[in-house]
Amino acid sequence: MTRRSWDILQQMTKMDDLNQKILRELSRDGRLTNLELADRIGLSPSACLRRVQELERSGVIRGYRAVLDPARLGLGFVAYVTVGLNSHTKASQEAFERAVARAPQVRECHNITGTVEYLLRVETADLAAYKHWHTEVLGVLPQVQSITTFVVMGSPKDDRA
User: What structural domains and CATH numbers belong to the chain?
Assistant: First the structure.
């Protein structure tokens, strides 16, 4: 985001303490009613609603979603996977991104800086399912040069919504 875009966004949506409190509360529980939210941040319901609507209109709030428990969905194995590509062309990156977009095991895909191009969050039922995905899906992509897996043993903090 350019400095000018940031200035325009801040003019459109002032990020004061109340807006920050609104965002904090909604990121914890996006199903709060306007009355509950207004009570928690100390605003009248009408003033709170106006602020939330402006945050939505300006794109600060892009949407609301359910936070799912992978273990209860039978996805008890979570890993972060770094992927290095063998070609650094736009076409190679786009082909890789299309392939991982089709893989339901990939919950997040980030193009990153450093010695590899991508960081993936992968969720599968168990180690055997991960090995199958690693070998039969990710490992056969022609763009992939290197794969490193980091198995999640626990998540003492996870604020993703």
Answer: 3-57 (1.10.10.10), 71-151 (3.30.70.920)
